[in-house]
Design brief:
The complex is a heterotetramer, with two copies of chain A and two copies of chain C.
Chain A lengths: L5 E3 L4 H9 L9 E8 L4 E2 L2 E10 L1 H18 L3 E14 L3 E9 L2 H18 L2 E7 L4 E3 L6
Chain C lengths: L2 E5 L2 H6 L3 E4 L5 H11 L9 E4 L2 E3 L10 E5 L6
Parallel strand pairs in C: 1-5
Antiparallel strand pairs in C: 1-2, 3-4, 3-5
Classes of the chains: A alpha+beta, C alpha+beta.
Chain lengths: 146, 146, 77, 77
Amino acid sequence: MSENILINGPVTHSKISSVIKSISNKIEAGGHSVFIGQVRADMVGRKIVKAIEYSAYENMVKKEADKITKMIYAEFNDVKSINILHSVGIVKVGEASLFVLVSAGHRSHAIQACSKLVNMIKEKLPIWKKEIFEDNTHEWKQDSFA
Amino acid sequence: MSENILINGPVTHSKISSVIKSISNKIEAGGHSVFIGQVRADMVGRKIVKAIEYSAYENMVKKEADKITKMIYAEFNDVKSINILHSVGIVKVGEASLFVLVSAGHRSHAIQACSKLVNMIKEKLPIWKKEIFEDNTHEWKQDSFA
Amino acid sequence: MLIKVLFFGVLAEVTQTSIKHYRDVRSFGDLRLRIEDDYPEMVHYNYRIAVNNEIINEDPVLNDNDEVAFMPPFTGG
Amino acid sequence: MLIKVLFFGVLAEVTQTSIKHYRDVRSFGDLRLRIEDDYPEMVHYNYRIAVNNEIINEDPVLNDNDEVAFMPPFTGG
């Protein structure tokens, strides 16, 4: 996978649809597992999230995404194809920021590989989110290192 | 879930798209896990599958689908919504026969609940598949009871 | 008892029908014998029984107008 | 050594910049002291270091023109 997984702004329905349309060409695939991450109207203290702004270390994202997709192909030899899209910039509540599609010969491999891949994306890709509240203040998400 | 999950013919891309479009209304959901089952160009002996014909005990499918979605909601209280579509009739190679979408507050619940639901659909719904080969002969899939 | 019998999957092919009514059925055992008489091949197949949309794991007690389904292993998805 | 330093996430906010060049850097320790001199708040933050796109878990050995990234915990997805 050499193409860039980062896109500016939300992962739109039309992008998702066009990727999903491509699955019918994969006649050796029996199962497709998809994960869509979406910005949630979270409460942080008394404030309500209205958007998330993502920033990324773009060159390193490419390199790490390449590594983790290779690891998935190596672990699951039934996996036929992998698609990842991740937002940078502003993504509003109700919009998608992450799209992952794993196609495999058999359903259990598609589901396991997709689940693992989503976890690796969260752990390994140098991407940061800043929560923007309805009063226009903001806060950096402060997860600790895994 | 009172609506019928069975549809005649394949689960088309336009059906999938329209369900996926609806997820942006779920602002309390952070993760959507989707599974799409597709007819694979399998070899059975020397024959190549060109389509699958699904038949179902329709009233019982409704009842059982209702039971299993209730079980998922009871087990995963973070799950916000569930959509299931399953084909009856002819579905050709490369076309989808099953679509499952589980939306949850958090990604791990969406993924676990969707995976469990797909397994329950296969185990619990009275649906049968007949493989149709390129030479127009056919064979009933003969899984044994779980 | 009048019993409505449904055959699914490969069993609909074996019996060449998907719905059949049996009259004066005395019990499930009686019903099964009459079906196996009509379709001797039935004995070679593995199936489960549902009565009025509910799977019954033992020989069911039937009532007039029950719907009895003969179901091979499910292979949906 | 000339070192290109990148700050990400909350650290870009702390330093009010995302790219800064440091000249005559003698070592990573030297670089870190100079950065903490420029931005004393840095010491309160948890971060990892990548050199030329590779995460380095110990203090890295730097070479001229290296790109050193200061990265808070990842929160993508």
